[in-house]
Amino acid sequence: IASSGCVQKRPRYASKTKIHKVCINSYQLLVLRNTVEVAQFINNNPEFLQLAESFWKELSYLPSLYDYSAYRRLIDQYGTHYLQSGSLGGEYKVIFYMDSEKVKKFDFHSEDKRNCASSHFQFLFTLSKQKCTTMDDALKSVSESGDNVLRGVPFVRGGRPGLIAGLSYLDLDNPAGNKQRYSRWAGSVPDLPEVIKQKLTPLYELVKEVPCASVKKLYLKRAFEEYLDEFDPCHCRPCQNGGMATVQGTRCQCYCKPNTSGVACEQGVLLGDQAGGVDGGWNCWSSWGPCVQGKKTRSRECNNPPPSGGGKSCIGETSETRQCEDEELEHLRLLEPHCFPLSLVPTKFCSSPPALKDGFVQDEGATFPVGKNIMYTCNEGYSLVGDPVARCGEDLQWLVGKMHCQKIACVLPALMDGIQSHPHKPFYTIGEKVTISCSGGRSLEGPSTFLCSSSLKWSPEIKNVQCVQREAPLTPKVPECQPWEKLKNSRCVCKMPYECGSSLDVCARDERSKRILPLTVCKMHVLRCQGRNYTVAGRESCILPAPAEKACGVCPLWEKCDAEGSECVCRAASECEEAGFSVCVEVNGREQTMTECEAGVLRCRGLSISVSSIRPCAAEAA
């Protein structure tokens, strides 16, 4: 395999992994691999497998009505697939890097390499053919140390760990020694085998022996597809310089091409035939369209990123068609009617439900049969007080309890033409600010910044705001943006979540959908700036990303480079250079305000802390 640029070598079996970056003009990769099979295994078909009691109980608890959050909890606990078949044994793979310029000096081609390496790696152990002798000379010329020892990067599974280090190099003057080290490792594989050549089967194939098993199997398959779509790399921001975006846990990560690096592969330039245009990437699939003649369709676009500068377009189809599940559900309704709610054909209906000031009916349908319940909710900026449920009674009158929408946020009054507000939102929570400005080169009379006070009134009061013609051009004043904002066209606008840097991980609840997901303090501020309502949830309510060792250059606020400059280590609280946001943290049962850096130092040093608010504690902020 020939390539050029920078090669990253990562030893697999070092106790603390270090990355050595070697930049060369041109190189070839010599890959040696083999497998040692000790035994093969295959599980019974899913219908004959005995389920573990804990898994069987979780299946029985699944609802017979589709609820993605309930089915996702099962996937989070047991995964998406189970092991159907495979082999026990060991896998041997070593990669050697060879300077192409040195190899070219020998009359030796890829076909010769394959002939020499075709039978049990004989070129490692005995060199009888003339071409294999030529290959031996070529390998000796590219050995870096000059001692005729070719060193590579091992990727070995199975066998005794103490024997793996001996597989990372070839002694070109001692083929018998190479064979002996390989044989010792291969001989240890039966004692310490690992699973290789595994075949996986989707978890939903194991749904059985519980009430409504067929319905739950269909719903788990649907949740499985939603789960895979949720963690698809199409949600990630495109990597630069042709890097490949992947999802590691809940975070996007870029794998960079040779001679490029950085979080988004933004550093360096592509060389050779890889330089030039940007290849296109697929965006996420759209939602499935309505069923038409038993089929549904979804589509996607090649704009993540779009091809440019002569880059290649995306490979694959722009649309996908699939059979609808309605027919299968109707069939299951006949087989297991108890798994579906009874549906009677109504004959009497109520008129439209009464209107609610500053509110509306959730999921309002076209008809309201007797016995149907509806639920009211309030517009943004208002909270419902009272019983939100109304019922269509037997007398065809709505049974509505006492309820009203109470204002919980500030709302901007109607502004004159030419007056702009930023950020422009339907409502503003207590403590938020809005800036008023004029368009068309005019200037604002009076204050330009207003605060939503605890009385849900603007301070100062917004009245008689007007724009006047500017007499002379003035140099625009650069506004001071909040940490969750950025300057754009001389105005502060909300950042995007991916523009956040290092920040504390927290569990956050979306108050509209009630879903809990892992975010950071910075991303919560950004989402609130964009008008989304997120609140901090308990640390145990979601799975936060596990701390990972990071190389110098990408240390979070609460870490620094160690003395050797090779990895990140915990700071002391007094060493915080960038404070981050001020948050409210619960430490040993007592809340106190501290910066993200100070809180991160405590968490980095193993102290159990919990972020209770992304703002300073109420007692200290008052």
Task: Please tell me about this protein's structure.
This protein is α+β, with helices and mostly antiparallel strands and 622 residues long. It has 5 domains: 2-195, no CATH class; 233-275, Ribbon (Laminin); 359-407, Complement Module, domain 1 (Ribbon), CATH 2.10.70.10; 419-496, Complement Module, domain 1; 499-621, Wheat Germ Agglutinin (Isolectin 2), domain 1. The protein is 18% helix and 30% strand. The protein has 12 helices and 35 strands. Strands 1, 2, 3, 5 and 7 form a 5-stranded antiparallel β-sheet that branches. Helix 2 packs across helix 8. The radius of gyration is 32 Å and the shape is globular. Residues 1-25, 118-123 and 125-130 have low confidence and may be disordered.
Whole-number total of structural domains: 5
Outline: globular
Given as residue ranges, the uncertain stretches (5+ residues, pLDDT < 50) are: 1-25, 118-123, 125-130
The radius of gyration is 32 Å
Approximate strand percentage: 25-35%
